[in-house]
Specification:
Largest sheet: 5 strands, mixed, barrel
Strand content: 25-35%
Number of domains: 1
CATH superfamily: Fe-S hydro-lyase, tartrate dehydratase beta-type, catalytic domain
CATH class: Alpha Beta
Shape: globular
Distance between the termini: 20 Å
Structural class: alpha/beta
Helix content: 10-25%
CATH architecture: Alpha-Beta Barrel
Number of strands: 7
CATH topology: fumarase
Radius of gyration: 16 Å
Length: about 180
């Protein structure tokens, strides 16, 4: 299967072209956020406040990077367990979030939201944070500085490697892979 190069944030209709199992190299702007930032964003939405980032077409990478060494854009930047964001994801998708990058399984509610809002969930390989950081060419603090490594950052990525797990049609690469393995 060929590797697909995609620009982010996604233009309308672009995320819907991806299918579970696709290997993707992302280039462009994505944001970092973990559970504390997700909680804060959903609280802001609940009271009608504007978010510190535009969600339309956007991808959030679930990461709490380590501090950058001199001359580097960011420190180690490996993915965080995605299920920690499951309680907040449907609300953010309803406000335009198109994709997420993390590791691990998503809840049925999140998978249903991915289908409903034509989004995607991708994973990057855990334990490769130092290598993934090499694909991040710049990093800028955007919001919630008090959260430390969990603050929201705007990062520029070039050929950031991901695998699509859940696509906009409801396909699940984890389940498909397990079924394929069971048949063999």
């Amino acid at each position: 299967m060929p590797v697909i190069r995609m620009k982010v944030p996604f233009e309308p209709g672009e995320a819907e072209k991806l299918r579970s199992g696709n290997q993707v190299l992302l280039s462009g702007t994505i944001f970092t956020a973990r559970d504390a930032a997700h909680k804060r964003m959903t609280e802001q939405l609940a009271i009608g406040e504007e978010l510190p980032l535009e969600l339309e077409g956007q991808v959030i990478y679930y990461v709490g990077p380590t501090p950058a060494r001199p001359g580097e854009a960011i420190g180690s930047a490996g993915p965080t367990t995605s299920s920690r964001m499951d309680a907040y994801t449907p609300d953010l998708m309803a406000h335009g979030l198109k994709g997420m990058i993390g590791k691990g399984y998503r809840s049925e509610e999140v998978i249903n939201s991915i289908k409903e809002f034509s989004g995607i969930y991708m994973v990057s390989i855990g334990g490769t944070g130092a290598l993934l950081a090499q694909k991040i060419i710049s990093s800028e603090l955007v919001a919630y500085e008090d959260l430390g490594t969990e603050a929201i950052r705007k990062i520029e990525v070039r050929d950031f490697p991901c695998i699509v797990i859940n696509d906009s049609e409801g396909n699940d690469f984890y389940k498909e892979s397990q079924e394929e393995y069971s048949r063999n």
